[in-house]
Write a structure and sequence with these properties.
The chain is an all-alpha fold. The protein contains 5 helices and no strands. Bound molecules: FE2/S2 (inorganic) cluster.
Length: about 100
């Protein structure tokens, strides 16, 4: 298991890290999905994170209040070897429950 911290992944220029998702940032403020992934511990190695975040953003843009089943269907094309998906689903649901 990797021991990288989310901030290290975010700032490392890692080819699969959040750098690819820089366009989601609003200045120095992370997109709520990025922040929720960090807060919920939904990032471990970061390999799946860009795909998960983009799938989640597409989902909540189209359906602001998805069910857990909606979330699981939306991220189904992304494989995560680290998290077991529970924290990822929790992060997406947390954002979808907030007013954005
Ligand atoms: S966090 Fe490592 S593959 Fe998902």
């Amino acid at each position: 298991m990797f021991q990288s911290q989310p901030d290290e992944i975010l700032n490392s220029g890692h080819p699969f890290g959040f750098h690819e998702l820089g366009h989601l940032r609003q200045g120095e403020v992370l997109h709520p999905l990025q922040e929720a992934f960090i807060q919920k511990g939904a990032i471990q190695c970061g390999m799946c994170t860009p795909g998960m975040i983009l799938s989640a953003k597409a989902l909540v843009d189209e359906n602001p209040h998805p069910t857990e089943i909606d979330v699981r269907k939306a991220i189904a094309g992304n494989l995560c070897r680290c998290t077991g998906y529970v924290k990822i689903v929790d992060a997406i649901l947390a954002v979808s429950r907030e007013e954005r």
